[in-house]
């Protein structure tokens, strides 16, 4: 039983507010309608019955009262009075409407009745008789004993009326007339009044239910819309939180690898200096110890040749040192425009390698911060170096523009391609870490027909 109640409660809570109101409010208003309708119809029934009885009683009293003697002085009716009542109640409009008639004395004795066998008999007073002897007109519709009426009246709508008979000069109740009136018109009037009352109550209840349902439905829709908007916002926030967590993890990973990358850069610089300029300087130093300079047997021509070779060796060493420095030192790009940075990187590559690069720029590029500008410059520099080294400088191209609200820069070539897992060394790895550390994306696409390196940055233009 408890489980059934729990299931019902759970299913009820899953319904919308509007549906809950339609069910609960519908049953509630239906119960209220039945209670109010029953009370109203009972009041209408009593009112219509009382008014109709009062009208009929007044009419009967106006016809019967003149035929009755002074009942305070005479305890029985004379034969002439009974004959007058028989003639009056047996013919005419009154005789057709009344199917049973009795005249009661205060002690319960029947002074007159259409059924002569009842005259003179004494009965216990009913509630209706007691109320009538107190001066009230009492009426009841279709609530009678079949023994009290004639057989031909059974099945007809009857209105039972107790009407007090008063003395004209004192107004004291001296007798009560009890009669049954055929109430065809009364029944139709009562049915019409009851139907009208039920229609009015039902209409008012329905109107109230529709009005309240409209208000509740509108409120339920508003709540559902707000709930849906809240769920969407929560979903968006969860997505943003997930993105922030992913970015935080990437930044932490980039920070952890920054030291290692710096050490690798330093080792590469050291290796470049050791294998290049240092070897040339050492060679020049060895030539300085040549017998050409220490001995006396060598001609001045030999010495001049040796000096020229030493000078060339030192010049080669200086050229390599300048090349290394050129790759390490950044130009003044913090204040330069994005388009100028791209042109600068392309021009330096063309001058250094003697190759050509196709540059394609969109009409308007945003002006990001210094970190983004440095990343763009290093990306183009390293991408073109790889295009020259691995792609043999074939079909080198650089393009930049906006797509999906993000800045993209692409470096491509028409070389034979390479395996990123095997060839992506210090340069591309460092670029990837640099780009991802500022929230960007780095993509490498390579194949037999060429290589494309693409970065995408979410940038905010600097004022």
Automatic annotation (TrEMBL):
Any coiled-coil ranges, and where? 237-264
The residues covered by the Signal transduction histidine kinase subgroup 3 dimerisation and phosphoacceptor domain are 267-329
A Pfam match = HisKA_3
EC assignment: 2.7.13.3
**Mind listing the UniProt keywords for this protein, alphabetically?**
ATP-binding, Coiled coil, Kinase, Membrane, Nucleotide-binding, Phosphoprotein, Transferase, Transmembrane, Transmembrane helix, Two-component regulatory system
Query: Record's SUPFAM superfamilies?
Result: ATPase domain of HSP90 chaperone/DNA topoisomerase II/histidine kinase
Any transmembrane segments, and where?
Answer: 21-40, 195-217
Recorded GO molecular functions are: ATP binding; phosphorelay sensor kinase activity; protein dimerization activity
> Does Plastid appear among the keywords?
no
Q: Which reaction does it catalyse?
A: ATP + protein L-histidine = ADP + protein N-phospho-L-histidine
Which intervals hold domain Histidine kinase/HSP90-like ATPase?
374-459
User: What are the annotated GO cellular component locations?
Assistant: membrane
Q: Which PANTHER family match?
A: NITRATE/NITRITE SENSOR PROTEIN NARX-RELATED (PTHR24421), NITRATE_NITRITE SENSOR PROTEIN NARQ (PTHR24421:SF10)
The identity of this protein, by name, is: histidine kinase
Q: What is the lineage of its organism?
A: Bacteria, Pseudomonadati, Pseudomonadota, Alphaproteobacteria, Hyphomicrobiales
